[in-house]
């Protein structure tokens, strides 16, 4: 079964066509890196997969596990197994990280008709993940992303990824704003998430991240379409040549 | 004196009538003042005046768990807070000055001991209560209003030098309300009000704090949820009368469909009060259609060398925050409740926080 199939997808935002017939297939166990110049539609792809309002699908289709998800609301897409790690994680003052995680997990369990996680086991698991990501446990008591540095916000996204265990992780420039140490920690987190049942779409500008998270496929997105696909070697070539030879 | 607007609605007490040459002039000035008209711009005075006619009884008070009977200072007393209310709240003055006043003198506690715990349970309209806190005394004042009966209530607190008062009050019952609170804060004294409430058909809160001596500090955190078609009107004045005083106020309110919320907050810095530091924030969320939110933060400054800020916002739940929550599998309704709760929790404080948060959660539905 295909995990994700995006077929001839065209998307507009405020009547501006951003994606123009994009095709992408992600199978379970695969990591796909999406690279491309600014304004090529990378973040639009991430947002439209997560169901962000204001993104209008004008043609084409998106399927997850062979089921069409275009008509699903964002929370229903999360229930179906999609997770978006935000390029700019949002601050939610007044909602503690721990509470946010618990509510999210409870909602996912309820939607999937699974038992709600035991609170003790939940707390233990969250603290364990925080430790692996070098996040101070005090962060868990603070408002979601409130007053976090850029690197802490990105690590917090990975904490959510590891706890919620979605089927498809869409990481939108998770490496931006990270120093080398933080980049390695985030990469370790993503690598520990990977298994034969899930998939990753890794949106990035830089080949550096791909030294730590080795992709199965690299795609170049330009002017709303995938114009080139290859293996990790393509990212190295892009690092040397830039994008102009493809656009 | 023919234009004394309230004269037909309220009985003027005998002692006042004897001196009406002076007092009625004062009344007229007060009733026609700009600030008075502003206070009643969005809430009609008449229903409040009707509320003030409700029979009032002595307040129910416990101190450190033991019921106490406040001293009765008599009828028509010229003591504070009523005389001081004339210019600020002439209708309250007129209505309440013929009530019995009650007073509590709270003596100094050993600084090593726990705060003196005063609890007020409001189940009916109460006659004005004056609480005088002795020097260097620490008090925890807890007020709960659990009745759905309509009620009015007047409380005046005077903080002696170096005293500390943390005043928590919850009002989540569905009755009409007029609550008048006046606090005089003495030298180096700190007063902290934690105010949590819901809207009702008619809910008026008048809060008047005065920093009367150097080092006085006033703090208010207030959270309100005004359900569908309900009302909350908060009239707040913080006066800085002496040099080197400070205040910090934050009010958050959420208005449901067709709810009506009014916030009128004024920081008044008198002449000869340099070194004042005063901040006021009022944030409002409209979470339904046709909610009406009127907010007016004001600064009235008559001296130099002060640090002041005031601001107000009226908005809706943040779309980015909503999407962030929903993208994690939280339903739109639960996300709205979570964000509403977060908005109010920024202003819920103190020993009644859990009760308040629980009451708010029920209101979110």
Q: Secondary-structure element sequence of chain B?
A: HHHHEEEHHEEEEEEEEEEEEEEEEHHH
Oligomeric state as shown: heterodimer
What is the element string of chain A, with H for helices and E for strands?
EEEHEEHEEHHEHEHEHEEH
Average pLDDT value of chain A? 94
Strand share of the residues of chain A?
25-35%
Structural notes for this entry:
The complex is a heterodimer of chains A (247) and B (365). Chain A has 247 residues and is α/β, with parallel strands linked by helices. Chain A has one domain: P-loop containing nucleotide triphosphate hydrolases (Rossmann fold, 3-Layer(aba) Sandwich). Chain A is built from eight helices and twelve strands. Chain A has helices at 42-50, 74-80, 97-111, 119-132, 150-164, 180-193, 208-212, 232-241; strands at residues 4-13, 16-26, 31-35, 55-64, 67-68, 82-85, 92-96, 143-144, 168-172, 199-203, 217-222, 225-230. Chain A is globular and about 55 Å long. Chain B has one domain. Chain B is built from nine helices and 19 strands. Chain B has helices at residues 14-18, 20-31, 34-39, 45-52, 82-85, 90-96, 319-326, 332-345, 353-364; strands at 61-63, 66-68, 71-75, 100-106, 116-122, 129-133, 138-145, 151-159, 164-171, 177-185, 190-198, 203-211, 217-226, 231-240, 246-255, 260-269, 277-286, 292-301, 307-315. In chain B, the strands form two sheets. Chain B has a ten-stranded mixed sheet with strand order 2-1-5-7-9-11-13-15-17-19, covered by helices on one side. Chain B has a nine-stranded mixed sheet with strand order 3-4-6-8-10-12-14-16-18. In chain B, helix 7 (319-326) crosses helix 8 and helix 8 packs antiparallel against helix 9. Chain B is globular. The chains are: A alpha/beta (247), B alpha/beta (365). Chain A binds chain B through residues 50-53, 73-75, 77-79, 83-84, 86, 89-95, 100, 103-104, 107-108, 111, 143-144, 160, 164, and chain B through 318-321, 323-332, 334-335, 338-339, 341-346.
């Amino acid at each position: 079964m295909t995990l994700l199939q995006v077929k001839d997808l065209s998307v507009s935002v405020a009547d501006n066509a951003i994606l123009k017939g994009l095709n992408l297939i992600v199978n379970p166990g695969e990591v796909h890196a999406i690279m491309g110049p600014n304004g090529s539609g990378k973040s639009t792809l991430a947002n439209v997969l997560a169901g962000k309002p204001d993104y209008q699908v004008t043609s084409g289709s998106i399927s997850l596990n062979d089921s069409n998800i275009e008509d699903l609301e964002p929370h229903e897409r999360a229930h179906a197994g999609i997770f978006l790690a935000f390029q700019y994680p949002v601050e939610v003052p007044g909602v503690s990280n721990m509470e946010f995680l618990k509510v999210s997990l409870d909602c996912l369990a309820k939607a999937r008709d699974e038992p709600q996680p035991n609170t003790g086991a939940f707390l233990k698991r969250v603290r364990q993940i925080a430790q692996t990501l070098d996040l101070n446990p005090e962060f868990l008591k603070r408002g979601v992303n409130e007053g976090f540095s850029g690197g802490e916000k990105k690590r917090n996204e990975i904490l959510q990824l590891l706890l919620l265990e979605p089927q498809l992780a869409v990481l939108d420039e998770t490496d931006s704003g990270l120093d080398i140490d933080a980049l390695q920690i985030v990469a370790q987190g993503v690598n520990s998430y990977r298994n034969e049942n899930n998939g990753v779409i890794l949106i990035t500008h830089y080949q550096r991240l791909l030294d730590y998270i080795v992709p199965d496929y690299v795609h170049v997105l330009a002017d709303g379409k995938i114009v080139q696909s290859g293996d990790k070697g393509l990212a190295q070539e892009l690092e040397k040549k830039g994008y102009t030879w493809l656009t | 004196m023919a234009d004394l607007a309230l004269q037909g609605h309220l009985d003027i007490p005998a002692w006042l009538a004897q001196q009406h040459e002076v007092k009625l002039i004062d009344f007229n000035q007060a009733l026609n003042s700009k600030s008075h008209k502003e206070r009643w711009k969005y809430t009609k005075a008449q229903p409040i005046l009707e509320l003030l006619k409700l029979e009032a009884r002595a307040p129910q008070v416990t101190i450190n768990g033991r019921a106490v009977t406040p001293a009765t200072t008599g009828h028509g007393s010229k003591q504070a807070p009523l005389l001081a209310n004339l210019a600020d709240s002439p209708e309250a003055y007129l209505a309440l000055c013929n009530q019995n006043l009650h007073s509590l003198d709270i003596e100094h506690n050993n600084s090593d001991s726990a705060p003196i715990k005063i609890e007020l349970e409001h189940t009916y309209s109460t006659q004005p209560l004056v609480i005088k806190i002795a020097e260097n005394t620490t008090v925890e004042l807890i007020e709960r209003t659990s009745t759905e009966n309509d009620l009015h209530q007047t409380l005046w607190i005077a903080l002696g030098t170096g005293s500390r008062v943390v005043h928590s009050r919850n009002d989540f019952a569905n009755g009409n309300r007029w609550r008048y609170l006046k606090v005089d804060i003495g030298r180096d004294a700190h007063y902290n009000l934690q105010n949590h409430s819901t809207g009702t058909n008619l809910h008026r809160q008048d809060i008047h704090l005065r920093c009367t001596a150097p080092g006085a500090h006033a703090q208010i955190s207030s959270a309100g949820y005004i359900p569908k078609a309900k009302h909350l009107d908060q009239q707040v004045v913080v006066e800085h009368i002496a040099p080197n005083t400070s205040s910090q106020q934050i009010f958050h309110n959420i208005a449901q469909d067709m709810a009506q919320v009014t916030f009128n907050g004024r920081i008044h810095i008198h002449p000869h009060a340099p070194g004042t530091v005063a901040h006021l924030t009022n944030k409002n969320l409209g979470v339904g259609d046709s909610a009406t939110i009127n907010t007016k933060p004001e600064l009235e400054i008559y001296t130099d060398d002060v640090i002041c800020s005031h601001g107000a916002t009226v908005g809706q739940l943040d779309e980015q925050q909503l999407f962030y929550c929903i993208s994690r599998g939280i339903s739109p309704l639960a996300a709205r409740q979570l964000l509403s709760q977060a908005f109010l929790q920024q202003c819920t404080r103190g020993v009644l926080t859990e009760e308040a948060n629980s009451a708010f959660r029920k209101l979110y539905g």
